[in-house]
Amino acid sequence: PRWADLILGGWQTNGIWRMSDGRPLTFMLSDGGQPLPTYGPQRPNIVGTPQRNHGSDWVDNYFVDPNVFQRPAPFTLGDAPRATGAVRSPSHFTSDLSVGKQFHIREEMNFEFRVEARNAFNHPVFGTPDTQVGDDTFGTINSTSVGPRELQLGFKFNF
Questions:
Q1: Longest dimension (CA), the chain
Q2: Mean per-residue pLDDT over the chain, rounded
Q3: Residues contacting 80, CB < 8 A, separation 6+
Q4: b or e along 133-152 (b: 16 or more beta carbons within 10 Å of the residue's beta carbon)?
Q5: Alpha carbon distances (Å) from 82 to 24, 143, 156, 157
Q6: Under a CB-based contact definition with an 8 Å cutoff, are residues 91 and 20 in contact?
Q7: Which of 64, 72, 150, 152 could cysteine-pair with 78, CB 3.0–4.6 Å?
Q8: Are 98 and 114 in contact (CB under 8 A)?
Q9: Are 119 and 94 in contact (CB under 8 A)?
Q10: Per-residue pLDDT tens for 75-112?
Q11: What is the distance between the alpha carbons of residues 118 and 155, in angstroms, rounded to a whole number?
């Protein structure tokens, strides 16, 4: 029936789903270490296997054992690679969704209604943990890169 089509028919949905695995982390000494010519900031030594904490406190304690990263002896290079894939930044998943419908008034006139949601499921996207060995905040995540859910209504009259 016409009334059912007016209410239920012709809806359109759109979505953008973003999923990303974490990026490899780069570790440096918080004070730059012993300055070496043409080398830049000094990297730490890795004396074990770095592992990510999967417990409930992972935002405040990202690494299982932060003592795996240690300061190298003076005037020596740390053995940490430039970037390590053994532990990565947090992965993330976000979705932007929209629902809309056009209502035809006459052949040359229609009315469009839309609801759009950015970060529709309100998933936080956590930043990279502090990787400056020796910082008080080493291994903690202090930022998020996507804000809360945002809704937007749109109305358009075409003639």
A1: 83
A2: 89
A3: 27, 43, 44, 45, 46, 69
A4: beeeebbbbeeeeeeeeeee
A5: 9, 23, 52, 56
A6: yes
A7: 72
A8: yes
A9: yes
A10: 788 898 888 888 999 998 999 999 999 888 888 899 99
A11: 17
